[in-house]
Batch of 2 targets.
Target 1
Amino acid sequence: MNVPDDLRYSPDHEWARLVDGVVRVGITDYAQDALGDVVYVEVPEVGATVAARDKISEVESTKSVSDIYAPVSGTIMAVNTELADHPELLNEDPYGEGWICDISPSDPSEVDALLDPDGYRALIEE
């Protein structure tokens, strides 16, 4: 499984990348592999305020429907509208073009509380 070293991870298999005060969020390679072929992605609403661990998205695959949770608290600043027509981006490029949303964190230190790459690798190897 691909676990990039420049990201933080939630126990629910979301990744978070803090860049210029904004947290970009997506699902991990492990999560997309477990889901199978993604056929639909519901993205959150821009402007919505979320708390860490709130449901922000839903991903439907050929195997199941899974909730996606906010790794940090804050305001949804942008969503990946490409996912409406190309949900397969979650499978093809989970850490790049398959991002789900950007959150302006209300408490940037929440990013530091997420799992580091080694902690996430230990989680998925259990």
Target 2
Amino acid sequence: MFEDYIPIAALNQYAYCPHRCWRMFCAGEFIDNQYTLEGTGLHDRVHTLGSNHRDDTWQVRAVWLKSDRYGLIGKSDLIEETDGQLYPVEYKRGHRGEFDNDELQVCAQALCLEDMTGRPVTQGFLYYAQSHQRQSVELTPELRDDAIATIAAVRTLLHTGQMPQPKYTKRCRGCSLYSRCLPQAAKKVSRYQEKF
């Protein structure tokens, strides 16, 4: 039944690097490195099912989210409710990211919450464990459009299975799958082939 649903995490991976998303969700490849192990350890602690009240905020952890409208499914780190407003909180290792892939993941969780509850979700948060900082994510029409476009791109990728070519960017430095795609080598081979 859920085989046609896209994992929310795939949107984050696709926005980070389409080739990485293909390797993980089409080829079934994954290699741990320091960053993925730290992230897994953080999520193992966060994904302990439970709920509590903190001041005027109700918190529930490890809730499965699903959207029939967008064909999404995934587990939230934390859902909070304050003054009748719901918002997702996504935990990340390290410091505030310089890329927008984490914001897309929060937006996808909000789309699921809206679909599940019928209530508007206008804001989410990213919590960075290393800096103990929370970053607000405003769920603007532009971010929503970007999330919906990314859902369509990931759906096409999963449906066709067509491998996007690796492209070297500064994101490659921390990628656990760098040794699989070798984007700089692919670029050199491409230049070599153009000569002949």
